[in-house]
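Intended use. Records such as the Hypp5468 protein entry shown here are meant for training and evaluating sequence-to-structure methods. They are not intended to support clinical decisions.
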Amino acid sequence: MATGPRKDEVERQMNEQTVLEIELRTVKQDKRVYKQQQNSNVFFREDKTKLLSECKKTMDELRKEYQEIQQDAER
């Protein structure tokens, strides 16, 4: 079944997002936060609040996808 590997990948991504959210929450307000450009080794300074909201949005999308995978597996 194709949902097994995809389910594992979504679980891995959810764990990464959870760690990222915890890390962002523990960074002091006056500290700088950087985001890596996709497919690049270049980092740009980013607003901590913006990164945290992106992280939450990504986590919501992953949760939704995970639920869909579980529902498909039950059928």
